[in-house]
Each structure stands twice: as C-alpha cells, then as structure tokens.
C-alpha cells in the first residue's frame, strides 16, 4: 500500500512531508507505514485518499473496482480536482500574497478544511457541467 502512496506523490509532484502537513497527519505515521510497522487507521487513510482524490480502495489496492474507461476517467477527474484544490489552498495560505481572511480574521484549520470540502463539491459539479457541454457540442 505504501508503494501506491509513493506513486501518487510522484504523479502529483508532492512529498510525503507535504501530504502530512496538508492533511494534518504526523510524519511518524507515514514513516511507520513505510517501514512496515503498521498500516494507518482507516480515518488517516481516508485523509490521504481524499488528498489525492482517489478512493480508499485505490489507495489500498491500486485498483478502483474495474479498469473500464469510465472508472479511469473518474479517477483522472478526481486527481485533477485534488490538484486544483491543493493549488487554490496553497495560494490562499501563502502569507506572502496575504493570508486568507474571513470577516477580517485568518482562516482556522477547521475553516480551511471546510473550504477544501466545498471546493471539491464545486469543482466536481463544474467538471460534470463541462463534460455535458462537451458531449452535447456546446
């Protein structure tokens, strides 16, 4: 399973440290997983899967319930969504460009996570709309 995590890191051009930082996991969790001392609990695995926009099944097995074109397209869309969200949140969190504020206060970690989840929903909806428009020749 760690091999799949490494592949996802490579494909998304991120380090395990960055994944830990952005998901709230400890680096020791990933280190112990890599060393084979234990497998992270399901809630931690789900954070990693969500970060990369893949299913828990894909993270643990390397497959997503089938190899048909539809599943591959969904997986690619999920990775694109994750990359877009991470890019947006990195820009929002970049203090050099100014902190992300709500009502004049910097976003808390909880608020940033809420924003992340809402961005996922919005981007998924936009992808569906774009797909429909492309299929209908618009």
UniProtKB/TrEMBL annotation:
It comes from the Bacteria. Residues 5-59 form the HTH cro/C1-type domain. Pfam families: HTH_3. Gene3D superfamilies: lambda repressor-like DNA-binding domains (1.10.260.40). This is Helix-turn-helix transcriptional regulator. The lineage of its organism: Bacteria, Bacillati, Bacillota, Clostridia, Lachnospirales.
């Amino acid at each position: 399973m760690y091999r799949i995590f490494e592949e996802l890191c490579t494909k998304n051009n991120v380090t395990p440290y960055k994944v830990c930082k952005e998901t709230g996991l400890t680096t020791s969790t990933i280190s112990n997983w890599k060393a084979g001392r234990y497998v992270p609990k399901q809630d931690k695995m789900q954070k990693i899967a969500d970060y990369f926009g893949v299913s828990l099944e894909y993270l643990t097995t390397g497959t997503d319930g089938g190899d048909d074109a539809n599943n591959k397209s969904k997986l690619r869309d999920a990775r694109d969504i994750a990359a877009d969200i991470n890019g947006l949140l990195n820009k929002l969190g970049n203090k050099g460009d100014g902190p992300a504020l709500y009502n004049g206060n910097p976003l808390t970690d909880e608020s940033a996570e809420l924003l992340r989840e809402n961005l996922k929903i919005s981007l998924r909806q936009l992808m569906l709309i774009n797909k429909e428009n492309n299929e209908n020749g618009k």
